[in-house]
Amino acid sequence: MTYKSDIEIAQSTQMEHIGVVAERAGIDPGYLEHYGKYKAKVDLGVMDDPAYAKRGKLVLVTAITPTPAGEGKTTTTVGLADGLRRIGKNAVVALREPSLGPVFGVKGGAAGGGYAQVVPMEDINLHFTGDTHAIGAANNLLAAMLDNHIFQGNELGLDPRRVTWRRCVDMNDRQLRKVVDGLGGLTGGMPREDAYDITVASEVMAILCLADGLADLKRRLANIIVGYTSGEAPVTAGQLRAEGAMAALLKDAIKPNLVQTLEHTPAFVHGGPFANIAHGCNSVTATKLAMKLGDYAITEAGFGADLGAEKFLDIKCRASGLVPSAVVIVATVRALKHHGGASPDALTKEDLAALNMGLPNLMRHIENITQVYGLPAVVALNKFPDDTDAELGLIEKKCLESGVRVALSDVWASGGAGGTALAEEVVRLCGEPSDFKFSYEDDLSIEAKIEAVATKVYRAADVSIAPEAVRQIARLEELGFGGAPVCIAKTQYSFSDDPTLFGAPDGWTLTVRNVRVSAGAGFVVALTGDIMTMPGLPKTPAAEKIDVDEDGVISGLF
């Protein structure tokens, strides 16, 4: 059988005018700001309009630990929303915006796949409505104002050796991980060591996704710590008087973007921090708006449940008051066999032994969601043609033993029609009681919070905090940040901080090498293992296959 690529499917589908999609969602035309025929932003005034006071059920879609075999989390999220519509439920999607780094790197497009996509997929995967560019501009404006302040006399006494704010670019560019800048002589600034982050790792991205309106955005921007004096006193963006201009650059970016699925379900795509180096969730504003418009708001969090779901629950829910009514854990037979040690070229062959060895990864994610966080869950088994009945049956048996049902999902091939069984189970779960709790409480120390996530969620045996990180934690607690939640930057490829440990490793030690505060976002970041905030391109980047013809038609995006 010959399959169409994702981009071919998207380009062959007739989209509805965004005004029609907005009408279906119940958005008053007065709140709509058109970006062409198929995209629009929604004015923030809708958030305070009493006509939009309802609150639908929130459903979080997460997944097992990622593998090169693929899991299909975004595809499942989109297909579930379409499936809910097919069984007569009013569903709205809220997704993250893709970053150009992965689009041109390994992952390719990130707007779903097959017949479960959000469109226009080319726009969403590339420049979209310019939100990420605006975030990069705001980030780099602050960097420019910081270095200019030092150059112009340094009234605030910023120590150039203690500058913590970095420039950013939305591209995987390892060349920029460590740089020396300010080399232009007397008029070229102060020479110093510096570094770049990918834009989605910028604190400005996290702030945009957690801010509650423009006033809160400005307050958070002002709280950003850009560096320290020689006496280790923090210097903020507010002291540089940068928050107003930064907010001006972000005044449109903070508004949620409305698009549609291939089946014309309303979808918000807004904000895109990575879950391995940031908090991994779309904007609180988009999620709340989806809940105002739909009886069911379907959203996702990045990478596996140990990263995206943990940060969604411990950071986003803590900051916003949101609580999911149900959680979907996406898994595939081939990914579980990969976790069980099967070689990449043998994943399409039946291998019950490898599957059985890999199943503990899924079981651990189930235990975390249902026992650590107290939420109802269903496993969405993303079906592939080479999955055997014996393999599917083994997964279902193990899940039922843990008290969680399995729903087969065939949304990649069949769209919403392949997601109705999952939709029915989600509706059932949303009627079940839950006992939601965080994995740690606010009054714990920063070190105790890191240990709580490490031992309860990752199942580490111990935590080793480097001496410099111990000093950093002590200083942050002195400055009053002890009550902040923690955002642990960790590899996405393992429960551990070692990307080569698959399955559900035990007896390992989490190593924390650096701790810093994102004061505007409101959390403390702990960097573990070898995680970096600026990825690099692979030997054969996806960019090599992307092209555009003389009519402007893009190919090779995914």
Describe the structure.
By secondary structure, this protein is of the alpha/beta class. 34% of the residues lie in helices and 20% in strands. The protein contains 18 helices and 25 strands. The two termini are 19 Å apart.
Q: Care to give the gist of this entry?
A:
34% of the residues lie in helices and 20% in strands.
Provide the fold topology:
Blueprint lengths: L5 H6 L6 H8 L6 E3 L5 E3 L14 E7 L9 H14 L4 E5 L4 H5 L7 E2 L2 E4 L1 H5 L5 H21 L6 E6 L3 E3 L9 E3 L10 E3 L1 E3 L4 H8 L3 H10 L1 E5 L4 E3 L6 H8 L6 E5 L4 E4 L14 H10 L2 E5 L4 H16 L5 E6 L1 H7 L12 H21 L4 E6 L6 H13 L3 E5 L1 H4 L5 H11 L15 H12 L4 E4 L1 H12 L7 E4 L19 E10 L4 E6 L18 E2 L5 E2 L3
Parallel strand pairs: 3-16, 3-17, 4-15, 4-16, 8-11, 17-18, 18-19, 20-22, 21-23
Antiparallel strand pairs: 1-2, 2-14, 5-6, 6-14, 7-12, 9-10, 12-13, 14-15, 22-23, 24-25
Helix pairs in contact: 3-16, 6-7, 6-9, 8-9, 12-13, 13-14
